[in-house]
Design brief:
This protein is 34% helix and 20% strand. It contains five helices and six strands, in the order βααββαβααββ.
Length: 134
């Protein structure tokens, strides 16, 4: 990340001269707020076209339900089985399903979903989830 020297601003400037902070953001696209001469925050100017460049995802919520996301991942897994925790991690990694607060589904939710869709999934001992063949 390229930072211009005039984009380094003391944190206290937020209290004393916030207009200056935002004028620098407007000019340079970002500022780095410093506490004890160390970077603590970055303030970015909103630019929808460049958010992915900054590593910030403003993606839409996925359109999959949890059981659909489970089916997608399990269909690609070896033997169509995975541990519930690994399945939860993979669904989250791919952003196939997120809870309303943006967090990942817990393995207990994965396990419970098997009970709601017994025609689709089988919960095996050891929290192993298997996709049933259709």
């Amino acid at each position: 990340m390229d930072i211009k020297i005039d984009s380094l601003i003391p944190f206290d400037s937020l209290k004393t001269n916030i207009e200056h902070v935002f004028s620098v953001v407007d000019k340079n696209g970002k500022v780095v707020l410093l506490k004890d001469n160390k970077p603590v925050y970055i303030v970015l100017k909103y630019d929808e076209n460049h958010l992915s460049d900054a590593g910030i995802g403003m993606q839409e919520m996925p359109n999959y339900t949890l059981h659909e996301a489970m089916r997608i991942v399990l269909s690609e897994a070896e033997n169509k089985t995975m541990h519930a925790a690994e399945l939860a991690d993979e669904i989250y990694r791919r952003r196939l399903y997120l809870k309303k607060d943006g967090s990942k589904a817990q393995y207990t939710q994965i396990r419970a979903r098997c009970g709601h869709y017994p025609d689709m999934f089988e919960a095996l001992p050891g929290n192993i989830i298997r996709l049933k063949q259709s």
